Amino acid sequence: MSAHLRTALSLAAHGVPALPLREGKVPFGNCPTCAKNICAGRPNMKTPGPCACPAPCHGWAAATTDPSILNSTSWARAWREAAGVAYHPGGAGLTVVDLDNAEAIAWARANLPATRTVPTTRGQHWLYWGAMQGANAVRPGVDIKSAMAYARWLGPGTGTMAVLPDAVRALTVKEPAPVRPVAATVPAATAGGRCPHRTPTYLDRGIAMAEQRIADTRDAVHATVYRTFLAVLSTHGRCGCLTETHTARLFTAAQAKGETVRHCTEAWTNALTTLGLTHG
């Protein structure tokens, strides 16, 4: 039995899904049956399975805690050729903050709670209790290895493992793309340029309520954004009081819920068209 297989079996016994790594610190490629994922198997799943291939296929999703699989004939060649061992942190309820250089380590020491650390070739792994979606390059020199990712096993490390902090989770939250507000194409202001709204506060309150409505939605985001834009324009779209600042606020609220600039623009344009506020 190779040293790498012994390490993998030890990890599995402690509930840590393991897999072999080949030269270059990468998983073994898919077998001919699963080449190019024609089996539609594990890479498309959030957890290992359902592909029944007995080989160590599908990268991170091949990781297992089943000793009969790790020690099977189908995996024997991989272990003979293995250059290292990896594990699926998310499968063990862990998150690894992979710090690739001294600058990244300095950032972590200044911004993250102390936890168990494992030295790597160029930096450190910081391990936390708790799983999240893995992501690469969340900031210079920093990757997140957790769900749907693998990390090299480089030893147990030192220090007491802390609970995954919000500061790490926040690293994978994408900021909304810069808003490119679309000025409402509406008819000229009412006769005399007088706005029928009593005070500017009325409009500001309406925009704030629209922002909150979008922020509170939990499903059917596209429909909610469109209906909200429609409501704003039906109330404020004919007097000429809406400005690009107002539309930017609405677009920002929509993008914070995952809408793209294109979706926002389409919803705004469709609302204008529905209300007959576009120029012919």
Q: Could you characterize the architecture of this molecule?
A:
The protein has 280 residues and is α+β, with helices and mostly antiparallel strands. The protein has 3 domains: 83 residues, no CATH class; 83 residues, no CATH class; 84 residues. Helices cover 35% and strands 14% of the residues. The chain contains 9 helices and 10 strands. Helix 6 packs antiparallel against helix 7, helix 6 runs parallel beside helix 8 and helix 7 crosses helix 9. The longest helix has 17 residues.
Keywords:
single chain; 280 residues; alpha+beta; 6-stranded mixed β-sheet; 35% helix
Content-based structural category: alpha+beta
Task: Give the topology string: H per helix, E per strand.
Answer: HEEHHEEHEEEEEEHHHHH
Helix count from the secondary structure assignment: 9
Give the percentage of residues in beta strands.
Answer: 5-15%
Instruction: Estimate the global geometry from the Cα principal axes.
Output: elongated
Low-confidence runs of at least 5 consecutive residues? 43-49, 181-193
* Sheet of most strands: 6 strands, mixed
Radius of gyration: 26 Å
Number of strands: 10
Terminal Cα span: 78 Å
What helical percentage do the residues reach? 25-40%
Number of domains: 3
Q: What is the mean predicted local confidence, pLDDT?
A: 83
